[in-house]
Design a protein that fits this description.
With about 120 residues, this protein is an alpha+beta fold. It contains 3 helices and 5 strands. Helices cover about 25% and strands about 20% of the residues. It has a 5-stranded antiparallel β-sheet. It binds adenosine monophosphate (AMP). InterPro entries: Histidine_triad_CS, Histidine_triad_HIT, HIT-like, HIT-like_sf.
Length: about 120
Amino acid sequence: MAEETIFSKIIRREIPADVVYQDELVTAFRDIAPKAPTHILIIPNVLIPTANDAQPAHEQALGRMITVAAKIARDEGIAEDGYRLIINCNSHGGQEVYHIHMHLVGGQPLGPMLAS
Ligand code: AMP
């Protein structure tokens, strides 16, 4: 069984986090080290370590992550200008926390998709 990360404690409100949205499937909170004026992490409440572990049974939660990202972007006032949704996977993807998460970043022009 996959090992829990600090994100499970955030979902259960056992440690402090700036939670901006939570429902029965997903939780969203501000990144502790923001890389842009808006930087929010959206995660499923169920532990899926990486994108490689996504199963058909997870599709509802994984789909909710995108609709919630769109709602948060509207709430943050960045929907019209645009933003970026990022899921890092494993070492080449730069994943640090092994509870799948979608970064919602925006609030300024983000430049090229990948550093060259
Ligand atoms: P990744 O590199 O895609 O795994 O991203 C992990 C992200 O989690 C980083 O942007 C961290 O700043 C963020 N992070 C780690 N711990 C916390 C925390 N306790 N609260 C909020 N964000 C966190």
